[in-house]
Design a protein that fits this description.
The protein is built from two helices and seven strands. The chain is α+β, with helices and mostly antiparallel strands. Strands 1, 2, 3, 4, 5, 6 and 7 form a seven-stranded mixed β-sheet that branches.
Length: about 100
């Protein structure tokens, strides 16, 4: 079982969203990333090399960007944003991946 940890920035990203959206995302993080965060699925994929994160979890229109430390069995959630078309916005600001 992996330890799940939100960075302070990811906590701020979540606080930018409505309460029911926050719950939807945190529930998905727990169910999707607690056991096999590095197994690609329909909603989970490894990203191309970028400065933000190595992995992405899709939760409806939302995206959870995270890194995995296999040695420590830890998942670090670094950003939470919303995908509109081909663009990702975190706290209303466009993010390039």
């Amino acid at each position: 079982m992996y330890e799940l940890e939100f960075t302070p920035e990811a906590d701020e990203d979540l606080s930018y969203l409505r309460k029911w959206e926050q719950k939807q995302i945190t529930d998905a993080v727990k169910s999707q990333l607690e056991y096999e965060p590095t197994v690609e699925t329909r909603n989970r994929k490894q990203l191309r090399r970028n400065p933000v994160a190595g992995w992405e979890l899709r939760v409806g229109d939302f995206r959870v960007l995270y890194n995995v430390d296999e040695h420590m069995l830890a998942v670090e959630i670094v950003a939470v944003g919303v995908k509109i078309g081909d663009l990702l916005f975190v706290r209303g600001v466009r993010v390039e991946l």
